[in-house]
Amino acid sequence: MTHAADTQAPLAASRRRFSLSEGQVSVIRHLVLMSFALVVLFPFFWIVSAAFKTQIDLLMGHILFEPNLDGFINVIFDKTSDFLRNFGNSMVIGAVSTFLVLVIATLAAFSLYRLQWPGWVLHSLLGWSVIFHMVPPITLAGAWYSMFRSVGLDNTYSGIILAHTTLHLPMALWMMGVFVRDVPKELVEAAQIDGAKVPRILWHVVLPIVRPGLAATGILTFIFSWNEFPVVLVLSQRQTATVPLGIGKYAQENTIAFTEMAAASTLSILPAFLLLLFAQRFIVRGLTSGAVK
């Protein structure tokens, strides 16, 4: 017993010597998180700084440089640039496809979780949604192109919007399913007892509760639609090309306009950044409410 106590005493002393206080643990945690944040944000800083450089400064790798707006001027005002048209196309396609996705996903989630479907229907549909979401979009682009061309929807906003709606609906269905499922059954049943029909229940009972989920799902859907490249590459031409295609046009076979590409990329960040800035509270609340409950 004495020998064991003698060996344990130095161990306990060493543990106390090397133990960290709560403040030190917090500092280390924040340093680690800041390191990860720098790794994630460094490409954005590099792109934004490159947008204000000249082509020579960028190719020479100059860290210190005099800010220059030629890249933005060429992207926005040059007669050969279609970036403003691409920007407008992305806004229209992203907004309309996001609206359609939210409407369909909310109605489908309410139907699956609140209208007494058999369990196998719910699990089959959700399982098929996961499988479809795992399919690379480029594998569907060829079939969509042939189908849209046969019905006159090739190189149209309608065809691209339908494609984006189909691509992002599985993710939205899963997200909205979590929020609709967390709506108390008692509220829905009370509204049904009062004689409210399904549209009234959706509008006055379900939607006010799932509003954070709608914001989170809508913003993610819009960002995915804004950044989508392979499908729109196949389905669009110059008139309906979106921002990713507009950025890609600055990389030609013989020359690459690095500063114009960086300027266009910087401008393309603005819509998503503004959405995240003004709706951050709803996004955090929407993405965490299902986990908390």
The domain tally reads 2
The N- to C-terminal Cα distance equals 51 Å
**CATH level-1 class of the largest domain:** Mainly Alpha
Q: Please tell me the CATH architecture of the largest domain by its name.
A: Orthogonal Bundle
> What is the name of the CATH superfamily of the largest domain?
MetI-like
Biggest sheet: strands, sense, closure?
Answer: none
CATH topology of the largest domain: MetI-like fold
Order of helices and strands: HHHHHHHHHHHHHHH
How many DSSP helices? 15
Instruction: Give the C-alpha Rg.
Output: 26 Å
Q: Percent of residues in helical segments? A: over 70%
How many runs of DSSP E, i.e. beta strands?
A: 0
Query: Helix- and strand-based class?
Result: mainly alpha
What can you see in these coordinates?
The chain contains 15 helices and no strands. By secondary structure, the protein is mainly alpha-helical. It folds into 2 domains: 2-72, no CATH class; 79-292, MetI-like (MetI-like fold, Orthogonal Bundle), CATH 1.10.3720.10. The longest helix is centred in the middle third of the chain and has 32 residues, at 83-114.
Features:
cell membrane; Carbohydrate ABC transporter membrane protein 2 (CUT1 family); 2 domains; 293 residues; MetI-like fold; MetI-like; 0% strand; mainly alpha
Gist of the model:
By secondary structure, the protein is mainly alpha-helical. The protein has 2 domains: 2-72, no CATH class; 79-292, MetI-like fold (Orthogonal Bundle), CATH 1.10.3720.10. It contains 15 helices and no strands.
